[in-house]
Amino acid sequence: MLPKPHRITAPGDFSAVVRGGRRRGGAAIVVHSRPTSATAPARFGFVVSKAVGGSVDRNLVKRRLRASAASRIRDGLRGVDVVVRALPRAIDADWTTLDDELRRGLAVGR
Fold it and tell me: In this model, does residue 58 exceed pLDDT 70?
């Protein structure tokens, strides 16, 4: 689990990132990102719908995406809000693929 300062939980914050941020799609995930204050911590939110699979599959995808997000935070990512939406192909993607797609999605505009 990500520490509380690094989580997006409010529905309004999810909407603001999706509607007002940049979008980068991959085969398994879509990354929406919106810059915030340069000193603010990076915050992540995840959307994994039932189209991805059953609860076990969805939780596996969420765990992998959270691990990838934690890695980006450890690398020093700051000043951005990110919403990651998993596509149905995410269940077939391994951790490395999801991590690469998240990294590429965050590289847009940098």
Answer: yes
